[in-house]
TrEMBL record, chains A, B:
<dbReference type="InterPro" id="IPR041614">
    <property type="entry name" value="DprA_WH"/>
</dbReference>
<dbReference type="Pfam" id="PF17782">
    <property type="entry name" value="WHD_DprA"/>
</dbReference>
<feature type="domain" description="Smf/DprA SLOG">
    <location>
        <begin position="114"/>
        <end position="326"/>
    </location>
</feature>
<dbReference type="InterPro" id="IPR036388">
    <property type="entry name" value="WH-like_DNA-bd_sf"/>
</dbReference>
<feature type="domain" description="DprA winged helix">
    <location>
        <begin position="346"/>
        <end position="398"/>
    </location>
</feature>
<dbReference type="InterPro" id="IPR003488">
    <property type="entry name" value="DprA"/>
</dbReference>
<protein>
    <submittedName>
        <fullName>DNA protecting protein DprA</fullName>
    </submittedName>
</protein>
<dbReference type="Pfam" id="PF02481">
    <property type="entry name" value="DNA_processg_A"/>
</dbReference>
<dbReference type="InterPro" id="IPR057666">
    <property type="entry name" value="DrpA_SLOG"/>
</dbReference>
<dbReference type="GO" id="GO:0009294">
    <property type="term" value="P:DNA-mediated transformation"/>
</dbReference>
<comment type="similarity">
    <text>Belongs to the DprA/Smf family.</text>
</comment>
Length: 411, 411
């Protein structure tokens, strides 16, 4: 509906006294108030989500700043008096109009866009978070990269990844972007970094969700990578520029990665890795989760095995498995046997023909009756099956009976 | 009910003309007829299972040898005329009283016992195979090892195992026998061999099921190992001495491994490994199956990942996981968090206390109001949580406010 306003306009308009409701440019007020809410409320604050949802950001902000003592606001948002009192007590100390305006200035200079839920490019998938959905996203790069029609897969994992994990992350990311999938991750060291890097190298679109402000890349060692992600994709955060990446925000950032992606795949994760938190968010949202297995002797795979064992994650061994999670047709026709019961025979034959074949020799000719007795089958059945096997070319008929053709060596 | 008769008695008695029904020793006849059936019918022959179940082995054998043209036998076993005709056609050519007696002699000399379903030591678990249950078992070693009250776990896997797979098989087998579990396997090279060998080395009981006659160890390279299994446990087969291990018999042998065990664990398996057939039998019997994950880059783990993905196998990373499959209490109280949502904080604290902790500094003292604003929480809540954290010793109170205690470094 609305487009993102250029930062200077917002700043100019918002300088008008907010509490007076005297702004002419309602749109700018809306954007300013949204930005203000990202200062007041920590990520995932459901009370903030409820009141902003009920009243809109501007009116909700007005209520907070003026104290909202008449109860109309909290009634509209179906909040108890206590919930409202507690919420105002945590929001009010953070109210600082100047800081909001300064941040909008910082954003303008750093070419950071404020993406609001009314924007056409707002990712609809975030609505599944309900009252815990982000109130806005601060975006470096192309906000549209977050809502392209392509499927999005989160590829996440341990910072302390092994060479094995990085190899698998690279394989997955490379093949997924080749199939048009957008790779979503958290820009951390280890698995996240490899996923982004390979997605970029393969010419794909990738999106990074950060726990702190997008203008201060974290980890700093990934400043260059994060810049490259922004150059062709998007780097986003729900906290305003200048915000530190706290542990709380990492946990909440994980819910964004999960909510933004149709499926979440954990490539490597220690027993208590933060990646499991991302997978947990995905599971809570009803999104499929996948885990790449590894050696049980590797601590870096313990979290993945936990996901397989306790959380019914799908065992991921290839990009095709991820495409399946995403509901994307893999295109390959299945050549696989549909049951475990007819497999060990490399020729594909089982049951009676296996028994006949077992009863035959490559070296010596045997009579039908002899083969039947050895196979424990009737002479009639044996004769019929020998006929079929002859057509397949796996047995030969001769004067002295039957002989098995030499089998091709198994790989 | 009956005990196994020593072979010489059987042989002597059975020399009386069977078809005349003139035997005095009905018990010996019963055992002789059971042995004869293991010559006539290939493993898993459901028609044989049905007629022997309905008439008993001796009468059923009489019917086959005499032709059973009056239909009484097949009626009793609820077989169609065609089923009966086909079955007799495949059994009759194998009828050779002399061969049965010779085999009972071979068995006596080689100290092989014939275990029949009436024996107290017959493993009750085999009854789940229904009409496909074995008609008898030829056993080297102690037949009682197959029906001890201890839980039995099948540890099976690829012949072409990797060092990783052999390491894991050894760990599992060693810990399982230490917990009193009987390790069941197939005596093949690779995983099977390691499982047996480690079980023996750890002083445990292990049982091997063979596809051929128990007097001709297969593979021959495991003759010594198979002898050692028999010395303290049991080596069993449903086919009589002298029988070759055919592919059909390997597939049917796998059903015995699965049926004898409360759970089947595949340690390593190629994409089409015979171990998957064993797991398939276990699944068909409603027995839990487990698979050990490995690197997705290892072909030797591809079958295990298939079991995890397509057949809902349990992901096995330790002996405790196998004990859980067996329904054996592992004894360790779970210290693990019950949800994925409260994990990444190494101190175990989350939510509000995480936010308070995030808002504090180790270096500088901060006032409660300052901490509240940084955490996005009310001063009252902040004050209350700071009090709790002070009791935990993770924050310190001073003249100038609060300070966070230095955290122990994460591993």
């Amino acid at each position: 509906m609305t487009d993102i306003l250029p930062a200077p306009d917002i700043a100019r308009t918002a300088l008008a006294p907010l509490v007076a409701h005297a702004l002419n440019d309602e749109l700018a007020l809306h954007v300013f108030a949204t930005a203000a809410w990202s200062h007041l409320a920590e990520p995932g604050d459901g009370v903030a989500g409820r009141i902003v949802g009920a009243l809109g950001p501007a009116t909700a902000l007005h209520e907070v700043v003026t104290g909202g003592r008449d109860g109309a606001a909290r009634n509209a948002a179906e909040l108890t008096a206590q919930q409202w009192k507690d919420a105002v007590a945590r929001w009010r100390p953070r109210w600082n109009q100047r800081a909001v305006l300064d941040n909008l200035d910082v954003a303008r200079i750093a070419r950071i866009r404020l993406l609001t839920p009314e924007d056409d490019r707002w990712p609809a998938a975030l609505a599944d978070l309900g009252v815990h959905a982000p109130l806005c996203l601060w975006v470096r790069g192309d906000p549209g990269a977050l809502s392209l029609p392509s499927p999005r897969a989160a590829i996440v994992g341990a910072r302390a990844a092994t060479a094995y994990g990085e190899h698998v992350a690279a394989e997955l990311a490379g093949e997924l972007v080749a199939r048009g999938v957008i790779v979503v991750s958290g820009a951390a060291y280890g698995i996240d970094g490899v996923a982004h890097r390979v997605a970029l190298a393969a010419g794909g679109v990738t999106a990074a969700l950060l726990a702190g402000g997008v203008e201060r890349p974290y980890p700093t060692g990934h400043a260059d990578l994060i810049g490259r992600i922004a150059a062709t994709g998007a780097v986003a955060s729900e906290v305003p520029p200048g915000s530190a990446p706290t542990r709380w925000r990492f946990l909440q950032r994980n819910r964004l990665i999960a909510a933004l992606s149709e499926a979440t795949v954990v490539v490597e994760a220690g027993w208590r890795s933060g990646s499991l938190n991302t997978a947990g968010h995905a599971a809570a949202l009803g999104r499929p989760i996948g885990a790449v297995p590894g050696p049980v002797t590797s601590a870096a795979s313990a979290g993945c095995h936990r996901l397989l064992r306790e959380f019914d994650a799908r065992c991921i061994t290839s990009a095709d498995d991820v495409l399946e999670l995403l509901g994307v047709p893999t295109g390959s026709t299945s050549w696989l046997p549909q049951t475990l019961f007819d497999m060990p025979d490399s020729t594909g034959r089982t049951d009676d023909s296996t028994r006949i074949s077992d009863a035959m020799s490559v070296q010596s000719w045997r009579r039908t009756e002899d083969i039947a007795r050895r196979a424990g089958m009737s002479a009639d059945d044996t004769s019929a099956i020998l006929g079929l096997l002859e057509i397949e070319g796996v047995v030969h008929r001769g004067e002295a009976g039957w002989r098995r053709a030499p089998a091709p060596r198994r790989p």
